[in-house]
UniProtKB/TrEMBL annotation:
<feature type="transmembrane region" description="Helical">
    <location>
        <begin position="168"/>
        <end position="185"/>
    </location>
</feature>
<dbReference type="InterPro" id="IPR017452">
    <property type="entry name" value="GPCR_Rhodpsn_7TM"/>
</dbReference>
<feature type="transmembrane region" description="Helical">
    <location>
        <begin position="85"/>
        <end position="108"/>
    </location>
</feature>
<keyword id="KW-1133">Transmembrane helix</keyword>
<protein>
    <submittedName>
        <fullName>Somatostatin receptor type 4</fullName>
    </submittedName>
</protein>
<keyword id="KW-0297">G-protein coupled receptor</keyword>
<dbReference type="GO" id="GO:0042923">
    <property type="term" value="F:neuropeptide binding"/>
</dbReference>
<feature type="transmembrane region" description="Helical">
    <location>
        <begin position="257"/>
        <end position="275"/>
    </location>
</feature>
<feature type="transmembrane region" description="Helical">
    <location>
        <begin position="295"/>
        <end position="314"/>
    </location>
</feature>
<feature type="transmembrane region" description="Helical">
    <location>
        <begin position="128"/>
        <end position="147"/>
    </location>
</feature>
<dbReference type="InterPro" id="IPR000586">
    <property type="entry name" value="Somatstn_rcpt"/>
</dbReference>
<dbReference type="Pfam" id="PF00001">
    <property type="entry name" value="7tm_1"/>
</dbReference>
<keyword id="KW-0449">Lipoprotein</keyword>
<comment type="similarity">
    <text>Belongs to the G-protein coupled receptor 1 family.</text>
</comment>
<keyword id="KW-0807">Transducer</keyword>
<feature type="domain" description="G-protein coupled receptors family 1 profile">
    <location>
        <begin position="64"/>
        <end position="311"/>
    </location>
</feature>
<keyword id="KW-0564">Palmitate</keyword>
Amino acid sequence: MNVPATLSPGVVEGLETTWSLAAVNASSAPTEGEEAASSDGPGTAGMVTIQCIYALVCLLGLVGNALVIFVILRYAKMKTATNIYLLNLAIADELFMLSVPFVASSAALRHWPFGSVLCRAVLSVDGLNMFTSVFCLTVLSVDRYVAVVHPLRAATYRRPSVAKLINLGVWLASLLVTLPIAVFADTKPARGGRAVACNLHWPHPAWSAVFVIYTFLLGFLLPVLAIGLCYLLIVGKMRAVALRAGWQQRRRSEKKITRLVLMVVAVFVLCWMPFYVVQLLNLFVTSLNATINHVSLILSYANSCANPILYGFLSDNFRRSFQRVLCLRCCLLDVAGGAEEEPLDYYATALKSRAGAGCICPPLPCQQQPMPAEPSPKPIPLTGTTTF
């Protein structure tokens, strides 16, 4: 933010919210203080480092999330209720990565050269991903709660068809809460007319503070509290029935996927908390160091490339599917191993029962094996004794 929420008379009527580095690097400042303000940002070496980090984050995010989307859509075994929610999260992260080149260019130029339409589009996509990601994680946590605490109801509610409808609701809710960004995002001359800033421009100064609190509550605090409550109930349930007959085997498989979702949530909190802290600080600090804004936003983008890495390390099914797509260690994929990741998913269980215990993923061209030659018929003996 460029000015505080409470303004003295004579200050500009419209208040700008620096929602991304497009705003941070081209934000307006008093003409006499432009040189001093520019010294607060990173130097040439620091900017080169930032651009390299952006390039790495964008590459990993695009490739990793595309891989997640591909394996879930291609392989029948991956079409579980939980993975459908992860698919939704990967789609949101993939869209989020498409805005990184624009933000990185603006960071390097300290100017927004892409026009008003792209300004509104980039900021809207950023906000849409922010809300969609946290809503997806909330739904994932509720899904884990139903699977562990209410296992009898899980077979009814935890189906891919239900998950798709919930994902549609997540996108609609995210679009609704992102409307203020789409309406008020626009470009404006900055730095004495020598640059263009892509900011959120409000008709009244108080709207900026309201918007920051609004996004903090809906996009972070309330969802994280709901997620924490779900996991408290899950832990209580696991401890209460840990010694019950038949629970141990199911508990191992449930624990794996619950740990995966919990790690995804933890990384989300670590990556997005600095962003919201900076947004709240901007309400009270008029000249926050630009490097702090850089770091907070880079961390928020890094969250989108971290999720596929977590899936590969923590999920056996994702790891095997990634290896199959990348043609790595293909021989390991012919052996069924490990506990079923989604034992309560009716759809996945039914598919497995029809196809047998082996891997039901269709092979890729790199894994095609030649057809074995038909065995030659046994020779018929010319003489012999027949015993009845």
